[in-house]
Amino acid sequence: MAAATRRAASSLVSRCLLARPAVPSALRRPDGTRGLLPGVLQRFGTAAAAEEPISPPVQVRHTQLLINGKFVDAASGKTFPTLDPRTGEEIARVAEGDAEDINRAVAAARKAFDEGPWPRMTAYERSRILLRFADLIDKHNDEIAALETWDNGKPYEQAAQIEVPMVARLMRYYAGWVDKIHGLVVPADGPHHVQVLYEPIGVAGQIIPWNFPLLMFAWKVGPALACGNTVVLKTAEQTPLSALYVAKLMHEAGLPDGVLNIVSGFGPTAGAALASHMDVDKVAFTGSTDTGKIIMELSARSNLKPVTLELGGKSPFIIMDDADVDHAVELAHFALFFNQGQCCCAGSRTFVHERVYEEFVEKSKARAERRVVGDPFRKGVEQGPQIDDEQFNKILGYIKSGVESQANLVTGGARLGDKGYYIKPTIFSDVQDGMKIAQEEIFGPVQSILKFNDLNEVIKRANASRYGLAAGVFTNNLNTANTLTRALKAGTVWVNCFDIFDAAIPFGGYKMSGIGREKGVDSLKGYLQTKAVVTPIKDAAWL
């Protein structure tokens, strides 16, 4: 990730994030000048969410489906509203794709793969198109970030300084891989020439979530296109706008028609049709574990297509007794509350050694109550609204469960203001392993703090979960760090940092957190077929 300045109070986050290139981070004011929109910085309190929403400095340009290089209406003519999480009011109406639109999109992708230029271009030319796309992302950084914030509710500074630049970085990373996907020549026990070829898999169906719409777009589309495949991507119904915008930029970069198709719609209709389509060669999905099971079943029942699944998590964040408590509080706060707590890998089980437990809880309370909650377009805001009323009510239900199970509500525990989907940063202490809030994925700004007193104990408790997506370790002892990183059953373990998402680092889970990996060289494997070609050699000079 990045090193652009965020807030003085979040300097720890800046130190933990990887360096990113400087990018424009300002919105455009009505007079055309640049700079974040002014406003009094509001701390924890209802005033932050009650202030009049800022008018987003961006226009919605694309609301239709993108099929075969053209924006078109849904076959049914239906549309659905996408809502502003700050108010619950409609931003725009978006084409509602269903099975017929998936059929149209898959047909376009199939023709582009079987007959079109994309798989037949030189790797160098495909790479150049991806690089031009990354340049266009940089050029339109502010507008893309504003659209993402408006549709999703995440802080504009986060979108503009971290997420949109990461999209460009990811596309450049995959552009670099295009001409480095090499086959092999392997020796055989006899006079045969043996080649191992890595071929594009064909038409990739992709389904992305609403919490990081653009980043998930890049995680999915980047490796698929780098390998020479074509794509049908279904956006989350809550956040359809940014993918349509950047897909248009990709065509401006020179992507041939039919290579990338975008269908907005709902899971039971468009998503199910994509996963079960007989002419889709592979499906990649990011979302809940329960939905991932459905995707896998539909894929198996149709043409047994392979799947990549990046699913839920309940990640432990373990703080040892040698920790600098102030540093640990800040990092654990970031690990949980980043992106309104709407992260699959959020450090949502904070295990703290008993020797520093009370100090940690008190300082965590103070940090949560300093958290800046409010309009995500306002400078300095750390936390915007939750995505929609369904998620909002789900989180409040988990908070109620925590109270009823006799966990200690340290702070928060209620909505913030009376408009939009804002929730106070919430902390529970004295949380026990069997409580619902310690077992299930809350996906919101709710930190559960658990006490432990022994290294072997915390390893056992941390691993006692159906999930295994990520984990965090905070210690100054190298031996302790080595013990934990090898013992924890998780796809990623961050030591004295959290949420480091470099383009080259693979990401995925153990157990019910998924199958396969996103990012890095491992992500390419899911979009390639392996073929062995064996040819006899006569009178070989050497074998």
Distance between the termini: 47 Å
Question: Strand percentage, roughly?
Answer: 15-25%
Q: What's the overall geometry?
A: globular
Number of strands: 22
Mean pLDDT: 92
Low-confidence stretches: 1-42
Roughly how much helix do the residues carry, as a percent range?
A: 25-40%
Q: From the alpha-carbon coordinates, what is the Rg to the nearest angstrom?
A: 24 Å
What does this 3D model show about the protein?
The chain has 17 helices and 22 strands. The protein is of the alpha/beta class and 543 residues long. The chain has a seven-stranded mixed β-sheet, sandwiched between helices. Strand 15, helix 14 and strand 16 form a beta-alpha-beta unit. The radius of gyration is 24 Å and the shape is globular. It starts with 10 loop residues before the first helix and ends in a 7-residue tail after the last strand. The N terminus is likely disordered.
What tags apply to this protein structure?
36% helix, single chain, alpha/beta, 6-stranded mixed beta sheet, 17 helices, 22 strands, 543 residues, disordered N terminus, 7-stranded mixed beta sheet
Please give the structural blueprint.
Blueprint lengths: L10 H6 L29 H5 L14 E3 L2 E3 L6 E6 L4 E7 L3 H16 L8 H17 L1 H12 L3 H22 L6 E3 L5 E9 L2 E5 L5 H14 L3 E6 L5 H12 L7 E5 L2 H9 L6 E5 L2 H13 L5 E4 L5 E4 L5 H13 L11 E5 L3 H14 L18 H16 L3 E4 L14 E4 L6 H4 L6 E7 L2 H9 L3 E2 L1 E5 L3 H10 L4 E4 L14 E2 L2 E2 L4 H6 L2 E9 L7
Parallel strand pairs: 7-8, 7-10, 8-9, 10-11, 12-13, 12-18, 13-16, 15-16, 18-19
Antiparallel strand pairs: 1-2, 3-4, 5-6, 6-22, 11-21, 14-15, 17-20
Helix pairs in contact: 3-9, 4-6, 4-8, 5-6, 5-8, 6-7, 11-12
